[in-house]
Write a structure and sequence with these properties.
By secondary structure, the chain is mainly β. Helix content is 8%, strand content 37%. Keywords: Apoplast, Copper, Lignin degradation, Metal-binding, Oxidoreductase, Repeat, Secreted, Signal.
Length: 585
Amino acid sequence: MASSSAVPSSVSAAAVAAVAVAAAVLLLAAVGAEAETRKYQFDVRMASVTRLCGTKSIVTVNGQYPGPTLFAREGDHVEVAVVNRSPYNVSLHWHGVRQLLSGWADGPAYITQCPIQPGGRYVYRYRIAGQRGTLWWHAHVSWLRATLYGPIVILPPAGVPYPFPTPDEEVPLMLGEWWRNDTEAVIARALRTGGGPDVSDAYTINGLPGPLYNCSAPRDTFRLRVRLGRTYMLRLINAALNDELFFSVANHTLTVVDVDALYVKPFTVDTLVIAPGQTSNVLLAAKPAFPGARYYMEARPYTNTQGTFDNTTVAGILEYEDPSSAAAAASSSNLPIFAPTLPQINDTNFVASYTAKLRSLASAAYPAAVPQSIDRRFFFTVGLGTHPCAVNGTCQGPNGSRFAASINNVSFVLPATALLQAHFAGRSNGVYATDFPAFPLVPFNYTGPPPNNTNVMNGTKVVVLPFGATVELVLQDTSILGAESHPLHLHGFNFYVVGQGFGNFDPVSDPAKFNLVDPVERNTVGVPAGGWVAIRFRADNPGVWFMHCHLEVHMSWGLKMAWLVQDGSLPNQKLPPPPSDLPQC
């Protein structure tokens, strides 16, 4: 059990919200005997939202924050008709959806599409293939995903059970961040001055900051009412812009059964860690007898950053229905409340131990198809660096410079035309180059003392892969401006995490320790602070696919690149033409 300490019950008093029932009703709407086409209408528009004694206008879908849940079964087709009624350019990404032969629907602005301009519309069409679990959707332009996001719940095909005990209820839990100020103004100022952006004012659970923040209203706490003896599947999603998060429920354990919509060998923990972009399904068993207490569900950051960060804690409340009291809802606020004991904020050993527990199910029904032989090997350094300040300018980065971030010393610059459109039209000239370095051009001691020159180069470069190539990629953190963890997300593919470690990757000794039997399969992986991670995947999806840090500030500074996978020889290995309503730049 998670260790806990008693907390005065006066920190919160609110009416109970019946969220699990609402989630169950939504899940029933997805039931169907055959693969179907699930259609959704997303109106992107502004809405006024009040949190922490302040009201501001935010970008939403259908006026909801967080946005609506998208439900589908494995094998279903999905159509989302998006109308942009906001003042911003918008694109939506379906984070983790493979998008097999549907790259036009992937969503990152200026990579697979030009953004939907104010007043414009676009229908995203794709199929859910070989995936079941929890994913999520979010804006993929500027910092709009601070509020423009929601869950994707993918059920198994009708009649196919979970490979673990079926939960009684399922509840999406989205961890996010809240700024009192306009986040578009926050990142615009940071990019203008070259300094770091203002950190968030709070973390949130399903859009609510909880009772531990000053000026948090009673209605601003997420509450989960549970019944004795039942099992709940919490569909956890880290939608925070810039922070990896620890998560724990006081006096309860969590059994991890799925990450990034892929089953894993179940294991039980008191606390888990989840990086921005990652998802995890966990089972929580309610107590068999009424405990006479309430329990905080808490999240707070894991970080090794040298800079400032939001060092606060968000809490929701898990409370039990009292079968002996007709007035249980009214009396529950008088019960004692317990808080979990979370790891230290920089507990890298805990994070390494947790991630080492993740293993693919690797069963006959859900095999681990790890590439055993490799066609192309890559070694990418990832980390922070600098750009020089303009002549006679004043910048707020290190030593008067501007913050930058890069992969193999290339800080990615978004083009004016979407890469996929340029590739399909055969007009790459002046849009992108195909000479992204496979290895650092100048090797150095990546995790040792920083080099004297911390400047990085700009470029819009891609790696070209033949269809079907097997790829091994080692991602190496650098200590140029301090070692940090970097969650990297690869669009269009899942990959196997075959190895990880601390210090500099050793190409002679480290591959011998790779797990090629049952490594965890993901779409987002954390590069350890001061360490490395090795992944393998098969380039079986033609198109242009973004890979980037899911810390939004690092991506804004250029920690991103793209893979261009060529068409195969067969008709079902070729990218189809773009849809007629694809937005134009």
